[in-house]
Design brief:
Structural class: mainly alpha
Helix content: 40-55%
Number of helices: 4
Largest sheet: none
Distance between the termini: 65 Å
Shape: extended
Number of strands: 0
Mean pLDDT: 81
Number of domains: 1
Radius of gyration: 24 Å
Strand content: under 5%
């Protein structure tokens, strides 16, 4: 039984090696991105996008936040949503279901490449502003 297990494991590892070799070669040939420089599949996707599709001169392109302070400031605005019902019944209630709101919102305009940190004691009129505030 031990010999069969070792034989199975060797063939399993060799087949994985063959699959990974083809994946690495195909990814490089199609997208010119080195898979071995990416620790996660998400990073690989981002590298492919930045290498082949990102054009910072395109006004419709999503801006890249490349300043740590700005990233931290924007990150503070992202929190988990509360999904509790405080008033389960009543009259003249308006019900809204926000399933898949993120993909829907992603279709719209996004803040651009111009990131400015503003600290002011006066209130800012956000009527005609767009971005993270």
């Amino acid at each position: 039984m031990k010999d069969e297990c070792i034989k199975y494991l060797e063939s399993d590892v060799l087949s994985l090696l063959q699959v990974m070799s083809v994946f690495i070669d195909e990814t490089f040939n199609q997208f010119l991105v080195d898979v071995t420089k990416c620790l996660t599949i998400s990073r690989l996707g981002l590298n492919i996008f930045l290498k082949n599709d990102y054009n910072p001169t395109d006004k419709k392109c999503i801006g890249v936040v490349n300043k740590r302070k700005m990233f931290e400031h924007i990150k503070e605005g992202y929190i988990g949503g509360i999904t509790e019902v405080y008033k389960p019944k009543g009259e003249n209630l308006y019900l809204s279901d926000c399933n898949s709101l993120y993909p829907f919102a992603s279709l719209g305009d996004m803040p651009g490449n111009h990131c400015v940190y503003v600290e002011d004691s006066k209130p800012i009129d956000l009527t005609n502003k767009f971005g993270f505030y």
